Request: fold
Amino acid sequence: MRRAVAFVGLLGIVAGGISLSVMPTSHTAAAANEPRTFLIPASDGYGVADCISSKAECGKIVANAWCESQGFGKAVAFGVATREDFTGSVTKQSPAQAAEQPLSITCGE
Reply:
């Protein structure tokens, strides 16, 4: 009886290994070849707003990592989003809203 259970377990392990080796090894793409822009809240809690808004070297690293996590290659552009990027209905901007202006990351291939 123990040999039968061990044999079934061995078959399960072999089947799992084969299924993993048959899976495609290419990278999956989240979108077509066209660039895509993402808007991220400045107060997201991760502290990346300083890097992205100042366009420092760390901003490029963060933007590239964001794009790669979304299935794209590298960041084409990043920085503070313009008002046209996220709203067209608000005409007057208050000082509180300026601090909460979202960040923009444009990802390409």
Notes: The mean pLDDT is 76. DSSP finds five helices and three strands in the chain. The longest strand covers residues 75-80.
